[in-house]
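Write out the bound-state structure for cobalt (II) ion.
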Amino acid sequence: MLDKIDHIGIAVRDLDAAMARYTALCGQAPGHLEEVPSQKVKVAMFDVGGSRLELLMATAPDSPIAKFIDKRGEGMHHICFKVANLEAALARMTGAEIEIVQGASGEGVGESRVAFLHPKSLMGVMVELVEQG
Ligand code: CO
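---
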């Protein structure tokens, strides 16, 4: 089972410019800023009710976010669902023939562990799964 929508990830070119715009949209500054070296991104998280928006800017040309923006421009990059047990969720995805892009080795924002599912298995939508540490 998926617990809830944890956040929606949005790929941006300029994090400062995007933060200013999304601070205006959300009515408050981001609650959390972090660089995630393993994913080669800098992120800003905005709290929206019980969910969040995640702005992602690449920190290297070979970052997945840089590649995404090169191909498709800025915009919605992924939906992230919270799960209680990442390994159990991934085993279920494998059983359902949903392709896993990056397995449970991925470290996410804060103490979380994340995995990504391929958009071609999910009608064009990249899905992230997160288990909070
Ligand atoms: Co995310």
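---
The helical segments are 15-26, 64-72, 86-95.
The first strand starts at residue 4 and ends at 11.
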